[in-house]
Design a protein that fits this description.
Layout (H helix, E strand, L loop, with lengths): L1 H20 L8 H4 L3 H9 L3 H9 L1 H7 L4 H9 L2 H6 L4 H10 L4 H8 L4 H9 L17
Helix pairs in contact: 3-8, 4-5, 9-10
């Protein structure tokens, strides 16, 4: 049992090291989760319709309500998606903010890759289904 846990821990450590080595990858793990907690808490609050209305009415004051730093607030107001992620924002929480503006994940991805939306979509369309491993009942879980 202890050996199994050691093997799992080693694989997790290797996966994290690999992810951290990829340029433009911002691994959101336990250590990073507290880096910009006020931003993540504020973005998570936007799941409530009442909170979205409060945010829309006064974004600046709404950021203050959650203790968002002035630097992060500037990124929120500018909708600097990649800046928010680099500052410790969880992509899933930051996307709740993007959704208020009806911005798709593709818009966020384009900014993260320093591309126009059309360039990013062309990149996505360059991946063909035939190039991807297909999951079938026979291969699922293997």
């Amino acid at each position: 049992m202890a050996q199994d846990n050691d093997d799992i821990s080693a694989r997790i450590a290797q996966d994290k090291a690999t992810a951290r080595s990829l340029e433009g990858t911002y691994l959101f793990d336990g250590a990073r989760s507290g880096v910009n907690y006020p931003l993540n808490k504020m973005c998570m609050s936007l799941t409530s319709d009442a909170n979205r209305k409060d945010f829309a009415a006064d974004e600046d004051a709404y950021c203050d309500r959650y203790g968002v730093s002035p630097e992060t607030k500037a990124m929120v107001l500018a909708r600097d998606w990649i800046g928010l992620i680099r500052s410790g924002g969880n992509i899933y929480y930051v996307f709740k903010l993007a959704a208020i503006d009806h911005v798709s994940m593709q818009h966020v991805g384009a900014q993260q890759n320093a591309m126009s939306l059309d360039e990013f979509r062309a990149k996505l369309n360059g991946f063909k289904d035939a190039d991807r491993p297909q999951i079938t009942p026979e291969t699922k879980g293997s």
